[in-house]
């Protein structure tokens, strides 16, 4: 069987980013942490922790961390059923759940899910933020136990649940529209007006361009990796961008932002994929995610075309 | 002299993340882009582009990109003085400026600076977001031309300008306070109440703990890499965290958030460091950054203890 004392030290170093903080977290000396990590690495013949500031996990280290989380989750269920088994801990030992989520979900509906779940379970969340097309990769690599993703295809060893569609409007300030699109929104004007792109993984603008122009014109763009910054930059007239409906509904209503082409939206279907090992102990989290998504995303069964009308 | 046609191809691949998009951007075929990049790599004996989805720069590639930006900036000045020299371009060629900025500056005062600057200069921004203690590293590695950083020490080859202090309050919801700090805020209660930490590089909570308790207690924490998400999670009672004064002033005033220890703030001094090569052509940007910082940060010469009172 694995050496769980050593595994716990590895997980603590990776969670806190340093050997010193890990030592304080698990109530041993830093040299004990260092020794446990090193011995486990020697025994496994693999580096688990990339020493640095902060310390990070190797791919193998990530897998071990997820394993520790799942063991902790199962222990939690065991102690619920057999409280007498629970060790007299010095302070409550909380499970830390690693979840990958796309920035726009985090910026709109996802915290509602965590708030709901945290009312029933006393655990900590370690959120990894990435593009919705790349969160699944983190799940596949074992870096997280669950992910909000646009990947429809089930990941091996995971359950997949459809959540709904995150709606995006192509928006800009009225002033920006007057400066760049006075003659209309077409391939030519789009090729000159600065866009906003989240990062190199963000394909939303290209998807919208394809839908709006039938082509994929090269467009000049700012790069701005921040959900809120994206809305703010559009308000300030720095560029046009694809903004989540929930974040711009008010601005569209009061005219501070306008749609480049009214009604031309992009809907991104989102799925909750969760490791089967974690899926039973985390049934409550899945329920909370599903409920928050039902309120915050466009869902077919609403009949009214969804929250944003 | 360097082959600037090839350099432009490398910069386009790195800016757009793909050979196809680069081809559309610089109006040549994808195979021409691929050939130019490959030939330059062979001539320099170094990989410049990490092929992937998206394509990214190697360290050498980053330095070449900054060089291309600086040449473009200097060309801009030249064409301003001698318009006849300007090539008849098919569409305006905009300079893309790479800047590293900490998430909390981006979430508060920094976009005001870009808005001001963009009124006088038609350029694009490529923002890299990192912890204020790590943005300088990107400047040192040649990944960006300028950075908003907490690093006081001037970086080699750079100008450094003091901007002011970004003020942080330790905040939580009244409900969270009642649940976790009914008996007072001390090392014991802080050791049990879930905190919010941005990422492994974020030391603000530890700095506040040291100031508040005189020690560095190990604290349970959520990890939540989002400036706006941090405020939202505090409002939802998920944890306590260090929030920028500008983002929580309203919530503190209306009682939706309260300070853990009233008046116990952390001030982070921020500097603008800019490559000397870029500093003359970017004098206008520096001026805009300075002006926006003077409004958005605490500055000693305000006399009133700053904007947040």
UniProtKB/TrEMBL annotation, chains A, B:
This is LysR family transcriptional regulator (Chromosome initiation inhibitor). NCBIfam families: argP, PRK03635.1, PRK13348.1. SUPFAM superfamilies: Periplasmic binding protein-like II, Winged helix' DNA-binding domain. Pfam families: HTH_1, LysR_substrate. Residues 2-58 form the HTH lysR-type domain. Belongs to the LysR transcriptional regulatory family. InterPro entries: ArgP (IPR017685), LTTR (IPR050176), LysR_HTH_N (IPR000847), LysR_subst-bd (IPR005119), WH-like_DNA-bd_sf (IPR036388), WH_DNA-bd_sf (IPR036390). Keywords: DNA-binding, Transcription, Transcription regulation.
